[in-house]
Amino acid sequence: MSPLGGPSSTEEAKASAFLRQGSLAAIAGSLVALGGPVVLLALTGSRWAGLSRSSSSAYTAESLLVVAGAVLLLFALLLYRRAFVHLKHVDPRLRPVALLCLIGSAGAIVLVAVGAVVASGPSGLTGCLGGHPTHLLGCLRSRDPTAGYLSIAGFWLLWAGAAGVAAGLIISGRHFGRSAMTAGGIVYMVLAAELVEPFAALVVPLALTAYAVGAAPVVAVAGATLVYLGARSGLRRDG
């Protein structure tokens, strides 16, 4: 840690602020993009909700949730990157992490664009889901090969950024001496591993894929919450 009040300390303070903001945006994005469709899917299966899984209103609602959540997650990724850019002046290990976040931002933009275009169609983005989130990629690829392949490319770019965020949070947590932030980075690593499963399901059947996708919102919110708690506690004061 640098002496308090010095240039490096100022960079660390800015990084801590961006980490707090990024974690809040990540919580909101996770709840909207990942949790929203799961809740809506449950509501469409209940009689009292008055919604049908095949209704256009359900498709539109889920499509808007996915796109809006993706925009929030893109914002979170950009905020995390800003934090790592400030902190890399103090800890050079974060230089490649900042680059991965930039790559991930490009992937998120691609996914948001594809999602917005497909959502404007008659069946909506989640018309491909058919009640099973793990079918989305295969459905997109069969209905619109261009959208399908762009989604796959965008996902892997975003995944690289997510892996960079996870590594950056672990490094930042150790730098600040905040175990909660480090734990949040580890949880993000678990989330990144979970999100690979839908792609693996395109090649081999995986019985746990649906459960992993369903648990993703909980894991994402838990990781972002740990990051927020670690960043909120402020800089470690030596001596």
Characterization of this structure:
This protein has 239 residues and is mainly α. It has one domain. The protein is 76% helix and 0% strand. Helix 1 runs antiparallel to helix 7 (209-232), helix 3 (95-119) runs antiparallel to helix 5 (145-176) and helix 6 (179-200) runs antiparallel to helix 7. The longest helix is centred in the N-terminal third of the chain and has 38 residues, at 7-44.
SSE arrangement:
Layout: H1 7-44, H2 56-87, H3 95-119, H4 136-143, H5 145-176, H6 179-200, H7 209-232
Distance between the termini: 11 Å
Unreliable segments of 5+ consecutive residues: 1-5
Number of separate structural domains = 1
Order of helices and strands: HHHHHHH
Give the helix level as a range of percent.
Answer: over 70%
- Helix-strand category: mainly alpha
The main β sheet shows up as:
none
The counted number of beta strands is 0
Radius of gyration: 19 Å
Overall mean pLDDT:
77
Counting DSSP H or I runs of 4 or more residues, the number of helices is: 7
**What proportion of the residues form beta strands (DSSP E)?**
under 5%
Overall morphology: globular
Entry summary:
This protein has helices at residues 7-44, 56-87, 95-119, 136-143, 145-176, 179-200, 209-232. By secondary structure, it is mainly α.
Key attributes of the depicted protein:
disordered N terminus; mainly alpha; 76% helix; 239 residues
